[in-house]
Amino acid sequence: MTRLEQLQQFLKDDPSDPFNVYALALEYQKSNQEEAIRLFDELLINHSDYLPTYYTAGKLFASTGEVQKATTIFEHGIAKAREQQQHKTVRELQSALNELLFESE
């Protein structure tokens, strides 16, 4: 069983666990960017409290030239991290947002 197949099985076994969707999205980033994007969008909609999504999804959308979507993702992630009092995550997302805005000027 390949890593991809294993992650697909984990998701099938427990579709309610956001980590399973996240891990599969990360794996798809290597081979199928469209599927990775679909999974990150799913996470942002269905598991909006899962903070790891915001940094990785923001970076992915920025790399595809979707600067406005990446900006929005980082901003929402910062708000969610503040709600959850995850100060390190706030700093990481703010840094990524600042970098994106600087590069897009």
Automatic annotation (TrEMBL):
InterPro entries in the record: TPR-like_helical_dom_sf (IPR011990)
SUPFAM superfamilies assigned to the protein according to its UniProt record, in alphabetical order: TPR-like
Source domain of life: Bacteria
Protein name per its UniProtKB record: Tetratricopeptide repeat protein
Organism: Pseudochryseolinea flava
